[in-house]
Each structure stands twice: as structure tokens, then as C-alpha cells.
Amino acid sequence: METRSNHVLVGAVVLILLAVLALFTVWLARLNGGSEKQYDIFFKEAVDGVNKGSPVAFSGVPVGQVKEIALFKPDPQFVRVRITVNSDVPVLEGTTATIQGIGFTGVSQIQLDGAVKGAPPITCPEKDRASVCPLGVPVIPTKQGGLGALLSSAPKLLERLTTLTERLTELLSDKNQASIAGILENTNRLTDALADRGPEIAATLAETRIAIQKAGNAAQQIGELAGTTNRVLDQDVQPAMDNLNQAINSAKHSMDTLDSAIGDARPGLKTFSNQTVPEVNQLVHDLRNMTEALSSVAQKVDRQGAGSIIGAPALPDYDPKKSPKQPKE
Q1: Do the beta carbons of residue 92 and residue 115 sit within 8 Å?
Q2: DSSP string, 28-84
Q3: Bridge partners of 61?
Q4: Which residues pair with 142 in a beta bridge?
Q5: How many domains does the chain have?
Q6: Residues 116 and 213 reside in one and the same domain
Q7: Per-residue pLDDT tens digits for 279-314
Q8: Of 277, 300, 280, nearest to 288 (Cα)?
Q9: Global confidence as pTM
């Protein structure tokens, strides 16, 4: 009985020690977990080579590991990768996550980079927390890496290569090959014809060069002629135009003076026309009458002498024959 009691006691002590060790391990894990931060990364591409426990590096420096990989149930096209990193890692706004292969082993890691100096850390805001942090932890945006970009663009590249191959096949069909052969043959004929006409072409080029040179000389002469014409206009025509302008200005001044003189003489001319001209006409009339009277006196003196002016005129002799007849009773 005593031996069995000892065994029970020893077993109880061992169980108690194991329980204490387990509690210590859990406490230590929680203690270590308190110095780490968790982030979610949503990849819209394959995460080949990334497994639970895969390393997480920040600019090539190991800072944590992958804790969980699962499909995002609300949108299965995304793969959710939860990572844990040391609390002192500067996961700031601008930081992005990519999948980077490690050598040629097929193993990949999560690469973080792109943190902006002075930017705030990536956290879950109080506003729109459910949309920004759907699973309660901050989300690091993704960026396609070199291999991921190559793999994502591979289907488009293959499609373009297929299209290019089909077009090359159509281009190199029998009909097009015959056409290309005809074009090459015509090209050869044209080359031979040009080779045969080489001297003529050279002569034509020489004549063209001479014509261009003559045209250049003609253009230079035209330029010189234009310069001479400008000088003639400046030296000869311009002075003549200045003299003509002076003459026009003098004539205008004379016309202005004449207009002023006519304006000043207009009242005297009006008086002369209204008063002096009638008086002159009367004077001329009186002079004409006086001239006629004097002419009559001169003629009388000439015929009858000077006494005709002083004495009475003589009576004519009586002639009975010329006497007037008496009227009958």
C-alpha cells in the first residue's frame, strides 16, 4: 500500500510540474506576443512558396514571420496572409508588401518596403474601421513584385505572341510570298536600271547643282538690288517728297492768306457794287448828254457862225406858192 501511495504522490507531483511548465510556456508566449504586431495582407495573386512560418523581411532585414494563410471568404479572389512583426519595425504609411522568392529553392518570403520618413504608422482608424480593417488588424497594401508582375502579364504576353504568330503566318502565305518575290524582282530591275543610268543621273545632279548655285546668285543679286532700291528711295525720293510737302504747305498757307484777304475786302466790294457803280453809271450818262450838246453847238457854230449862238434865229422867206390853202366855205 505504501509503495502504491508513493507512486500516486510522485505522479501527482509530476502532473503538477507539467501543468506549471505549460502555464509558464503560455505566459512566455503571451509575453513574447505582446512585443509583436499583427498585420493582414490581401494578395490578388498566387502566393506560391509562402507558407505558415515563412519569413517576413523589411528591406531585406528579417522582422517577423507568416502566422496564417487563408482565402478571404467575403471575396475569394483575395488570399489573406496574416503576419507578425516586431513592435519596433517602422511599418508606416506608404509601406507595401510583395512576394519575393528566395534563391531557386521555390521558397518565398513576404518583403516589406517603401516606408515614408515622418509618416504616421499604419493603424485601424476609429472611423470606417470595419471597411479599413475587416478582421480587426491593420492592413498593409500590396505591390506586385518582379516575378509576380511577370507571371500576371504572362497570359497577355502569350496572347500577343499567338496573335503575332498568326499574322506572320498570314504574311508568309504562298500568295504573299509570290508578291514579295515579284517586289524583290522589280527592285532588282530598278536597281540595274539605276546603275545603267548612273552617268546620266550624275550629269543631272551636276546640272541641278549648277542651277541651284545660279538661283542662289540670282537671289543674292535681287537682294542687292532691293538694297540699292531702298537706298535710292531713302536718298533721292525722300528729299523730293520732303520738298513737295514743303511746297504743299506753302501753297496751303498762301490759300489761307488769300481767303483772309478776300474776307477782309468783301464788305468794301459790296459797298462798291451797291453805291459806287450806279453813281458811275449816272456820271457816264451825264457826260454822254453833255458831249452831245457840245457836239450840237459846235455844228451850229460851224454852219451859221458864232452869231447864231447869241442872236435869234432868222425867219424863213415867204413863198405864196407854199402858203397853205384856205378852206372853202
Answers
A1: yes
A2: HHHHHHTTEEEEEEEESS--TT--TT-EEEETTEEEEEEEEEEE-TTSTTSEEEEEE
A3: 58
A4: 97
A5: 2
A6: no
A7: 666 766 777 777 777 677 666 656 665 555 555 555
A8: 280
A9: 0.41
